[in-house]
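Reviewer 2 asked us to include a model.

Predict the structure of this chain.
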Amino acid sequence: MRSEGGGRRRKVETRFEEKDKTVALRIIKLYLALPQSTEAQVIGKQLLCSGTSVGAHCREAYRNRSDADYISKIEVGLQELEETVYWLELLIESRMVSAEKLNSLIREAQELTAILVTCVKNTRHKSE
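Predicted model (structure tokens):
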């Protein structure tokens, strides 16, 4: 996902950013539609934080000068994605939101995870 050639973005970066932004916007809409109960709002705020910070961490990664810094930022993005999936699962398992409404969002978060894992592996492989 690193930029190459004078700041030109590779296709995977652009694809990731578009997909991540779509997921983040869906999470914002989900948060706004959650029940007003204390439980739903607490989980919702956690979800809002983790689900919208992934792209910010990855954009920071693009600007890092070393592979180690790049990997570190991408791994923070991965942690945020894992946390996002956890909060989505809790919303389903607590029956605050139906699985039908969230399963596609969980799948998209898992797809983003796969993209980032590949980026980390490729960068580590390149560094060896």
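The domain at 11-127 is CATH 1.20.1440.60 (de novo design (two linked rop proteins)). The radius of gyration is 16 Å. We have added this to the supplementary material.
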